[in-house]
Amino acid sequence: MATEAYGIVHFFAGGTREQYDASVAAVHPGDGQLPAGQIFHAAGPSEGGWTIMAVHESQESWETFRDGTLLPRFNQGIDGGFTSLPEETVVDLYTLLP
After folding, report:
1. Quick check: helix, strand or coil at residue 51?
2. Using CA atoms, how far apart are residues 47 and 75, in angstroms rounded to an integer?
3. What's the pTM value of the predicted model, to 2 decimals?
4. Range of the domain at 45
5. What's the DSSP call for residue 98?
6. Number of domains in the chain
7. What's the rounded Cα separation, in Å, for the pair 53 and 42?
8. What's 73's domain CATH number?
9. What does the pLDDT look like over 14-30, one tens digit per residue?
10. How many degrees, rounded to 5, is the angle at CA 41 between CA 52 and CA 87?
11. Is residue 42 part of a domain?
């Protein structure tokens, strides 16, 4: 099934759960809530750090979140959050199942 959904994978080398919790609290609208346009979010420890996977309705909704919320907050600094930008992998999704 073809889709316009847009996937992002962020890897934070040396990242921790505590940094993730602080960072998500700073960029998401509330506990357990996704930013506008984001339809999936998963995160957890991975070899050498912390990985976040997100799916947005479209590349445009990702760019709106990235440019309007995510990068400005990271550039301000997030107390207890990740201290550097992640390694980013873009996934131009072909299939997205419920």
Report:
1. strand
2. 26
3. 0.93
4. 6-91
5. -
6. 1
7. 5
8. 3.30.70.100
9. 999 999 999 999 999 99
10. 25
11. yes
State the Rg of the chain over Cα: 13
Residue with the two structure tokens 């992640």: 86
pLDDT in tens, 63-93: 999 999 999 999 999 999 999 999 999 998 9
**Per-residue model confidence (pLDDT) at position 92:** 87
pLDDT confidence band for 3 (50 / 70 / 90): low
Residue at token pair 């609290």: 25
CA atoms within 13 A on the CB side of 85: 10
**What average pLDDT does this structure show over 28-55?**
97
- Is residue 10 included in any domain, yes or no? yes
* Residue at 96 is within a domain: no
Tokens of 74: 């990271």
- Domain membership of residue 1 (yes or no) is no
Three-state secondary structure call for residue 28: coil
Q: What are 56's strand-pairing partners? A: 6, 38
Task: Report the distance separating Cα 11 and Cα 52, nearest Å.
Answer: 7
Q: What's the CA angle centered on 27, arms 2 and 43, to 5 degrees?
A: 60
